[in-house]
Amino acid sequence: MDLEDAMENWSSVKKFTDEEVEREKLEKIFELTTKAPTAFNLQPYRFIVLDSEEAMEKATSSVIPVNGWIRYADKIVVLVGDEEIDVNADQVLEHKLEEGRIDEEKAENLRKMYFDYKNRDSEFMTGWLTRNTVIPATFFMLACKTHGIGSCPVRGFDQDKLSEKLDLKETERPILIFPIGYPKEEDRNWRRPGGEIFEIR
Ligand SMILES: Cc1cc2nc3c(=O)[nH]c(=O)nc-3n(C[C@H](O)[C@H](O)[C@H](O)COP(=O)(O)O)c2cc1C
């Protein structure tokens, strides 16, 4: 399915067949997901794929009761954002240096600037993490859809409980979870017409 069809036919999937999502397909989906933009290209996120029954239980026991259906997914993918927003700064800067796009002095200034962002207040950090994970989340869901895999973004879970169960770093926060699998049933929901969501000034 191409991207336009995937967007046109989007629906969150909450009912799945028994078919397993193949490892190669998952690898392709995550390869596409890495193409998502993030601020300064810092990519302060990662995905954890819960595949075994034991691993999935960590998510199913952390959701609010209405989300109990997630246990029937083939896998549960957890998107984690890192408050240590410069966690990948060395790699990002190394690439820029190698490509000759910056020199050492500029790299040092950038490193300091990234570091300073970490000392802002928690409201700023929440905004930063949200912005820098929802775009990768969208790339992920659309990559799934174009490869025939259904998903649904789920936020109804206890963040602290899930962090503990997944043994996340102190600076990491689970942002969204995505039950995934081959779709069994899909309900298409109403959307506002395109003309209603923008104005030209
Ligand atoms: C940020 C966010 C959080 C969501 N959380 C949940 C959730 O906790 N449980 C759930 O069943 N669906 C959840 N959804 C899915 C929405 O209910 C669904 O996308 C919406 O009803 C539109 O339906 P559609 O995606 O099938 O078009 C969430 C969606 C978003 C974007």
UniProtKB/TrEMBL annotation:
It comes from the Archaea. Keywords: Flavoprotein, FMN, Oxidoreductase. The keyword rRNA-binding does not apply. One of its GO terms (molecular function) is oxidoreductase activity. Its cofactor is FMN. Residues 9-182 form the Nitroreductase domain. SUPFAM superfamilies: FMN-dependent nitroreductase-like. Coiled coil: none annotated. The keyword Secreted does not apply. This is Putative NAD(P)H nitroreductase.
